[in-house]
Amino acid sequence: MARTAPVPNIPAIPGMNPGVFVMGGGGAGGGSGARGGKGSKNRQGADGKSGGEDAEGGGKSACATPGKDGGGCPQHHGGSRSGAASHGDPIDVVTGRVFTAPIVDLALPGPMPLELARSYATSIRDRDIGLGYGWTHTFAWEVELRRSGAVVWTEDGLDVAFGAVERDTGVLGPHGWVLHRHEEGFALDVPDGTRRIFELDMDDPLRRRFRLTAVEDRAGNRIQLVYGKAALARIVDCVGRTIRVLTTREGRIAALEIVCPSGRVVRAARYDHDKAGRLIRVTDADGHATTYAYDDDHRLVSYRLPTGLVFHFRYDQAGRGVETWGEHESGVDPCLADDLPELLMDGATKARGIHHVKVDYGPHGYSEVVDAACVFRHFGNEHGKTDKSVANGRVFSRTYDSRGHLTSYTDALGATTRWERDLFGNETRVIDALGRETRIERLPNGDITRIIDAGGGETEISAGQNALVLKDPTGALFEVRYDGRGLPVETVAPNGRRRIYRYDDHGNAVEASDERSVLWQATYDELGRCTSLRDEGGALTRYAYSDKGLLLAIEEPGGLTSRFAYDGLGNLIEATDPGGRRTVLVRGGTGSLADARLPDGTTVRLRYDRKERLIRVHNARGETYAVELSPTGVKRRERMFDGREIRYEHDLADRVVGVTLPGGDEVLLERDLLGRIVKRTRADGSEELFEYDFRDDLIAAETAAGRVELTRNAAGWITRERQIVDGATFEVTVDRDVVGMPVRHRTSLGHSAEWRRDYAGRAFKLLLDGTDEAEVRLDAAGREIERVLSQGGRVLFRYDEAGRLVEKRVTAPRLARVAGPGEPDWVGALDPSVTVHQRLGYNASSELSVLWDARRGATRYSYDALGQLLAAVPDGARGELFAYL
């Protein structure tokens, strides 16, 4: 079977079937995931998409706004910047800042992935670092010397003051950052092990500006930045690839070009500016353009996505964002339902398009936000975060330390989680709403060495120069070994199983093997995109991409090719399978699926409210599924395609506490402060009780019929199940190996099942009650190839190069004809020892087309355009026909 995501560098392959739609885009920025690497910052990869969609309590980008930890959500997040609140496209409703989520224009995988992302903020609209006023990017870090001391400008456009930094010393700043000064300039260390190096800008007449010249990780991988006069001229990634930065006569960035070793040049992005120096157009590698417009003060007033959706912004006299919305330039957004309310929740403002919000600012950090579904009230503080947020009357509170790190979160039911932190802001102690405590021990640099859970179980992490060893609460050890670039080259599981990885010069994983054989081999292009994968059986799958990095085609073994097409945001809009079946996806301006035009010509339609929350699905038969949402987005009512309705009741934390079923019966749910269901009461008055351990795993369930108790070990694995029914007790005991796999089940009735695994031989034996035995052998892909039964019978399986089952044989040696003296071996159409012999064939869409049986002959299958079975016709017998409603 062809792989869909076999190695770290391969993006998720877009796919769908007539009932499920998986909307794909470009791959994330990649990276080894090793201790020295950094994953994609915003999980947007090479597709250039600029953010997520609707987020609870915020806007379409609320969970990716300042701090990127979802501070706009009512749900708590323990990050150091938790509490930042944004709504709409978004607007920071504490500070009034309008900004964009980071947009990735260039990404190259490697031991230290290179990713260049840009973002805009009104708070820096008077600053131009080379992309135009108000814009910044990943490598726009600078150190500026002022009378008050050193200030670090970040990639977000924030200026962070460190005060005086003496030569050969370091100063601790916010977020655990440490700024060092040395003879040539400065170095900034952050808790994830990244070091940024700054050197004096020789073109600065005041000698106060220090530009970023290198970024290093813990493994010593290095990205270098080279300047020509006052502008960035090129970037060299950690494996030596060069990104050429073309600039205008004014020194602004005009284009980014990747210069491949072969001499091929790929233009990743082009930037156009107006005469005032403002960025007005960005064109990606596939030719899709996003345009921007500003007022005279360089404030962003609108931008147009390649899909034709335009977001607008309005400001008050103080320059704060007070309104934003998105409308399709055609006036019609295919995603929106046609019966949406015409006004926002203030009852006065005409609703426009999607993600329409208005913000009113009051004194002392207070703001009030209204959108098409809800009214939010926020009480901000000096950290630019919220002390209290009110959503539809529900109150959520936070407290912080003097550095702005979250110290407590209280939900609308009064459940409080508390945090204690070290000097760098790292969590050292977490106490949940039930008073259960988790402790985290760290090295001085913040690395975790031990986690002690609420049950006293300990997880230990120890790091050597080129290895990381993890010891779980059961005492099992797992080891990862690294090369000098920080790439994992070997893993050792607690049972001794090893997996070895090999890389090319660019840090791409090209081979994986175990104790017995090579598991897969991969090749890559110059941009680090996987172009082929050869599996353990030698089957080859090939991949093709656009310049932007979007997956265009997959050629599976046997020449089976699937093709894909995308919109300007990198969202999948068309897929054609190897059999020629074509599915077309029509999307709204931000990528939400509106229509799915299936291969048989029928269409499934999905419609959304103004916050892009799904509220209606119209299937191909004209039936409708509808959902009624609360102001905060939880389901109040569902109407199924067949007309049945289910209603839901929620507590103040938006957790379901009551369900009314289609027949009118009610189910009541009682929850504890953590939201766990502790009692379920049905319409007839019967009750079900539930108990949990400190990990929130279920350990007991009780009804009038009986009780079930689960015993778990320190890792949470079930080791015993006890059932009490009508006064009788039954037990099942489970013995496990060091990786948690069951090796023996024993019952209180005297029965047992035992597994004996040979990982190196890819086989296992099953013993039932200590006598009956079956042995199973697997290939390197984990597929069963042989099953040997206790009396000598065998079941044999064979697969084609695409991984599809093509033959099955069942043999019974006791039925074999034994040749007598002087007689030949069996000759004939059917060996009597073979009791079942089947062969399977497939069509171009990998659907079963013929099943040949040695005794019954062949049965042929046909399908409609959706892959639904239409007919099964055996040789010489009456066939079966199928129809669907």
UniProtKB/TrEMBL annotation:
<feature type="domain" description="DUF6531">
    <location>
        <begin position="88"/>
        <end position="162"/>
    </location>
</feature>
<dbReference type="Pfam" id="PF05593">
    <property type="entry name" value="RHS_repeat"/>
</dbReference>
<feature type="compositionally biased region" description="Gly residues">
    <location>
        <begin position="28"/>
        <end position="39"/>
    </location>
</feature>
<protein>
    <recommendedName>
        <fullName>DUF6531 domain-containing protein</fullName>
    </recommendedName>
</protein>
<dbReference type="InterPro" id="IPR050708">
    <property type="entry name" value="T6SS_VgrG/RHS"/>
</dbReference>
<feature type="region of interest" description="Disordered">
    <location>
        <begin position="28"/>
        <end position="89"/>
    </location>
</feature>
<dbReference type="InterPro" id="IPR031325">
    <property type="entry name" value="RHS_repeat"/>
</dbReference>
<dbReference type="InterPro" id="IPR045351">
    <property type="entry name" value="DUF6531"/>
</dbReference>
<dbReference type="InterPro" id="IPR006530">
    <property type="entry name" value="YD"/>
</dbReference>
<dbReference type="Pfam" id="PF20148">
    <property type="entry name" value="DUF6531"/>
</dbReference>
